[in-house]
Write a structure and sequence with these properties.
The complex is a heterodimer of chains A (268) and B (443). Chain A is α/β, with parallel strands linked by helices. Chain A has helices spanning 48-55, 78-84, 101-105, 119-132, 149-160, 179-194, 206-212, 235-243, 249-256, 258-267; strands at 10-19, 22-32, 37-41, 63-68, 71-73, 86-89, 112-113, 116-117, 167-171, 198-202, 215-220, 223-229. Chain A starts with 9 loop residues before the first strand and ends with a helix. By secondary structure, chain B is mainly α. Helices cover 67% and strands 2% of the residues of chain B. Chain B has helices at residues 48-61, 68-84, 91-116, 124-141, 146-171, 175-194, 207-213, 219-246, 254-276, 286-304, 306-316, 318-323, 328-353, 366-376, 390-407, 412-439, and strands at residues 199-201, 215-216, 284-285, 356-358. The termini of chain B are close together. The chains are: A alpha/beta (268), B mainly alpha (443). Chains A and B meet through α2, β8, α4, α5 and α6 of A and α8, α11 and α12 of B.
């Protein structure tokens, strides 16, 4: 059902990262193809956010290589990642509260002639973009400080699409959202896949992951711990990979409540 | 981010046709047809003057006071001193306020940029002193040409500012400490440069003397500048409205443009009249022209250019700016460079007023007045919010008070206390309006 290109757009080969005495990532491998949604899951502290930050240039990697369209590239600062075509929506939304919606959408890629901002073109494109994404906010000219949490989230996601990126990274995009907004964001993720973007989705919400992801890459204590196709992998297998064991409190509990949990999960 | 929990859920009522079904089975993406993104809860301003008035009162109640307190304060100051001394609004007095505002006001423009960045520059006064000393030593003692020595003085301020910025941005020393060290260090350099001489007088007819001593006596100058300013203002508003209309974006109604232009025109021509016509009028001071030029350029840079946008972004959320690919260090270094440059340029005006460079130029309350002007004018001390024009408004308030108190013969020590009280009042108003804005959801 999904067309997947032969060469991954982005590939991490043996990536390691340490902060002082903590080895956060060890020999991590990850491949993202165009038109593919890869869910990156793992427990708190598994290294998901750090991995994403290495791709987006916030933390340069210590060892390993990052390949873009098959050739190795250096990503040492956010600008490198942007130039390649990586757009990131962070968990802490990374919006400037004092700037209005338009300014935030175009931050870092302002439309301009010479160095003078073209506010009108930016406002026009911002409105078009928000319209096509069915995003509703009171006005594109109010400071982001005046928006609600959900509105900030959709603005942050919309902002990732301004530069027409090849890879979009969403770090916990639905964590702070209500039911309606979660569904909208998942819609948005599927629309990104249809348009041929590769999407990396970090989420703790298995329902979200199973709803939109094609593959699930599991991180545990900074290492790869499984790479599954969502279509033919059970919920339990993924949970086991996340927790790192097949016999533990989680699986025992699930054995006890197997049927109940399954129906609950489906109903959800 | 802290108000995530407090804010209500976003609009859901109008979007139901876009999404279907429960959370785990989202609708196919194709169903999302574009719908006009106007939130039904948005308070839209009505067309015409009535809408303008309701919008205005709503903003006031929401705590968005803007320049209103300062303007009201200025009117009160003018009335009080005019009652005390009938000469307060005379031509020479107004010209005096304009000229004395210029030098410190230009320095205040520099500090506005630093404050927008969320930092502070305590070295303004000392850098002004170094600028004046560099000019005096080059021009008067060593005979370097007039223009070149002025340029070199400004460049020295720029380099000092860039050095501050380097230590702040690259090394990570807090700006407070870097510029505090600069405050001491550069005033030492200033005294060392001046050498044995306590003061070096500005030669008559030199650029620096003319900075504050030259007046355009031709009446056409003041009226012409007022006319150009009004036409440029109206033209930019009309052009903007036309372009926005062409792009099908909401634009200012004509009535608002007429109203704004009328207010600006009255202000400009009243000032031009007072400078030109009454007894003792000397015409348009060059200092005021230069100050206005700095203001217009700085305002354009802050609001309309990429650099200005980046400064606001770094001041609002430095980490967000960094992740957006903005070179935060570079912006910080450049802003301190601008601040140093304008400090040195302002220092030349101060030197011009006091007849030349001295060992103590820029010391005393210079720094305090500069920061006070920016804050009184409405620039936030907490970063991310501010207007270049606040340098003008705030400095006019301060100089009006000083001029008025001088005219009614108030002692220096009383002046300090009153200026201090005005600064405190400005910050109190800022804090209260910020709190009101928070409860009104606008900050």
């Amino acid at each position: 059902m999904i067309h997947v290109s032969a060469t991954p757009v982005l590939a991490l080969r043996g990536v390691s990262k340490r902060f002082g005495a903590v080895q956060v990532l060890t020999d991590v491998e990850l491949e993202i193809h165009a038109g593919e949604v890869v869910a990156l899951v793992g427990d708190n502290g598994a290294g998901k956010s750090t991995l994403v930050k290495t791709i987006s240039g916030v933390h340069p990697i210590d060892e390993g290589t990052i390949e873009w369209d098959g050739r190795p590239v250096q990503i040492t600062k956010p600008h490198d990642a942007q130039n390649l075509g990586v757009a990131t929506v962070y968990q802490d939304l990374a919006l400037c509260d004092n700037l209005d919606v338009v300014a935030n959408l175009f931050l870092g890629s302002e439309l301009r002639s010479a160095s003078v901002l073209d506010e009108i073109a930016m406002e026009k494109r911002a409105k078009e973009l928000l319209d096509t994404l069915s995003i509703r906010i009171p006005s594109v000219r109010i400071p982001v400080a005046a928006l609600s949490g959900g509105q900030r989230q959709v603005v942050a996601i919309a902002r990732a699409l301004i530069g027409d990126p090849k890879i979009v990274i969403l770090d916990e995009p639905t964590a702070a959202l209500g039911v309606e907004q979660t569904a909208q964001v998942l819609d948005l993720v599927e629309r990104l896949r249809e348009r041929g973007h590769g999407v990396i989705l970090i989420s703790h919400n298995m329902a979200d992951v199973r709803a939109v992801a094609d593959r699930v890459a599991v991180l545990r204590l900074g290492r790869n711990n499984g790479d599954f196709k969502v279509a033919d992998t059970s919920h339990e297998t993924i949970i086991a990979a996340i927790t790192g064991a097949t016999d533990n409190a989680v699986t025992r509990r699930q054995a006890r409540t197997a049927s109940a949990a399954a129906t609950k999960e489906d109903a959800k | 981010m802290s108000d995530l929990a407090k804010t209500p859920e976003p609009a859901t009522a109008q979007t139901s046709k876009v999404t279907t079904g429960p959370e785990s089975t989202p609708a196919p993406a194709a169903s999302a047809a574009p719908v006009p993104a106007v939130d039904p809860r948005l308070l839209v301003r009505e067309e015409g003057l009535k809408g303008y008035w309701t919008e205005f009162t709503r903003k006031i109640r929401g705590g968005e006071l803007g320049s209103l307190p300062v303007v009201l304060g200025l009117i009160v100051i003018a009335i009080v001193f005019q009652v005390q001394n009938g000469n307060f609004l005379s031509a020479s007095s107004v010209a005096n306020i304009a000229v004395y505002s210029s030098g410190l006001g230009i320095m205040a423009v520099g500090i506005v940029f630093v404050l927008i960045l969320g930092e502070i520059d305590l070295s303004m006064g000392s850098v002004a002193g170094v600028g004046a000393a560099v000019w005096a030593v080059l021009n008067v003692t060593n005979g370097v040409s007039d223009l070149l020595s002025v340029v070199l003085a400004v460049v020295s301020g720029l380099l000092i500012g860039l050095l501050h910025g380097f230590f702040f941005a690259k090394i990570g020393v807090p700006a407070f400490v870097v510029t505090l060290a600069g405050f001491l260090g550069w005033s030492g350099l200033q005294i060392w440069l001046m050498g044995k001489e306590g003061s070096i007088n500005a030669p008559s007819g030199s650029i620096v003397e003319n900075l504050t001593a030259y007046y355009f006596e031709d009446k056409a100058a003041a009226y012409g500048l007022a006319l150009v300013a009004v036409l440029a203002y109206a033209g930019s508003l009309l052009l903007d409205a036309k372009r926005r209309k062409a792009a099908a974006l909401p634009s200012r109604p004509v009535s608002e443009i007429v109203l704004r232009t009328a207010v600006v025109a009255i202000l400009c021509f009243v000032v031009a009249y007072v400078l030109n016509e009454p007894e003792g009028a000397r015409g348009l001071p060059l200092a005021l022209v230069l100050f206005l030029a700095v203001l217009v350029i700085a305002d354009f840079v802050a609001r309309r250019t990429l650099f200005g946008r980046k400064v606001f972004a770094v001041g609002g959320n430095a980490e967000a700016a960094r992740r957006a690919g903005i070179n935060v260090d570079r912006i910080r270094i450049l802003v301190f460079g601008v601040s140093g440059m304008l400090a040195a340029f302002g220092g030349l005006f101060v030197a011009s007023l006091s007849g030349g460079a001295t060992k103590s130029l820029g010391s005393g309350n210079t720094l305090m007045l500069v920061i006070a002007a920016a804050v009184i004018g409405g620039t936030s001390l907490f970063g991310g919010r501010g207007k270049v024009w606040s340098a003008l408004l705030g400095m006019i308030v301060i100089q009006s008070i000083q001029q008025g108190l001088n005219m009614i013969g108030m002692a220096n020590e009383i002046q300090y206390m009153i200026t201090g009280a005005v600064l405190l009042a400005a910050v109190v108003i800022d804090s209260i309006s910020r709190r009101t804005q928070k409860t009104a959801g606008r900050a």
